[in-house]
Design a protein that fits this description.
It is built from 14 helices and 2 strands; from the N terminus they run H-E-E-H-H-H-H-H-H-H-H-H-H-H-H-H. It is mainly alpha-helical. It has one domain: MetI-like fold (Orthogonal Bundle), CATH 1.10.3720.10. A two-stranded antiparallel sheet has the order 1-2. The longest helix is centred in the N-terminal third of the chain and has 56 residues, at 2-57. The protein is flat, with a radius of gyration of 28 Å. The mean pLDDT is 86. One of its GO terms (biological process) is transmembrane transport. It is found in: Cell membrane.
């Protein structure tokens, strides 16, 4: 009898202990949701809502003033039949391919600057300076650099080359100008990653005989995978949404030869008041970015797992 009474007492005393972790977990979940709620609300208002409105607007004809009229897929049909759309898409792909030179060059600069010598902070500041310049300043500086009458390129080559006036060269000239600040941005990402590398792993690899490229490929780069992911993703997004330098340096010309999807979208909305058609271009650009980002995230998750 005494044993059964003792067992009942133990069961009663153990019940609150079993309930406490569950209630504690619910309180923590509730607290986390409350902390996330302001950020989720801002994200919904300033990101999700504009995306939904742009998608809905792409199915309408609208000049920004008169009432909207439903157009169905007319904007997308016109977009597919437009020659300028394919020129912009080709230029976006060219931007994407050449802009991916920024991460390896940024890594090379980061490896060079990741040393403790006298004056290295000043050198880092000089390398990082192009990134803090506004895009308009970079565009104007390179416009003067390319000028065929008095530009620095004329003094280097010996004769004037109309880089921004020739459809064959204009896109390449603007991409070179865009790479000038993008490479220091990737350099900073890699420098931040290099500071978090465990030096004991590097020393252990050197004791095992790892040197040069083998040390970089098998020891350093695997630890820089998060920095590489951020550098590649942000570089691709920057290539796909390139706008400011094109607007400053060429205005999409000559003859729409340097236009990209972002500038084509702006051109239709601001100059021609075709808000629905511009929204369809934005939806296509958003879909391209979304596909790439999802692919990169899945690839990163698989690699980490």
């Amino acid at each position: 009898m005494s044993i059964s009474v003792t067992q009942r007492a133990l069961r009663r005393s153990s019940r609150p202990a079993l309930r406490q972790p569950a209630s504690l977990g619910r309180r923590r979940t509730r607290a986390a949701l409350l902390f996330l709620l302001p950020g989720l609300a801002l994200f919904a208002v300033f990101v999700v809502y504009p995306i939904v409105c742009s998608i809905w607007l792409s199915f309408h004809h609208w000049d920004g003033m008169t009432p909207k009229t439903f157009a169905g897929l007319d904007n997308y049909r016109e977009l597919i039949a437009s020659d300028t759309f394919y020129v912009a898409l080709k230029n976006n792909l060219l931007w994407l391919v050449l802009f991916l030179l920024a991460p390896p060059f940024g890594l090379a600069l980061a490896l060079y600057l990741n040393q403790n010598v006298f004056g290295i902070r000043l050198i880092k500041s000089l390398f990082f300076a192009p990134f803090v310049l506004p895009g308009v300043v970079v565009g104007l500086a390179f416009s003067w650099f390319y000028d065929p009458t008095f530009g620095l390129l004329k003094l280097i080559v010996g004769h004037g080359i109309p880089v921004l006036g020739d459809p064959r060269y204009v896109t390449y000239g603007i991409i070179v100008a865009a790479l000038w600040p993008q490479i220091p941005f990737c350099m900073i990402l890699y420098l931040t990653g290099l500071t978090g590398i465990n030096p004991e792993i590097i020393e252990a690899a050197r004791m095992e005989g790892a040197r040069g490229f083998a040390l970089l490929w098998h020891v350093i780069l695997p630890q820089l995978r998060p920095a590489t992911f951020m550098a590649v993703v942000l570089t691709v997004i920057g290539a796909l949404r390139s706008f400011d330098l094109i607007s400053v340096m060429s205005g999409g010309g000559p003859f729409d030869s340097s236009t990209v999807l972002a500038y084509f979208m702006y051109d239709q909305a601001i100059k021609y008041y075709r808000e629905g058609y511009s929204a369809s271009i934005a939806v296509v650009l958003f879909a391209i970015m979304l596909v790439y980002i999802v692919w990169q995230l899945r690839r990163l998750v698989r690699t980490e797992s």
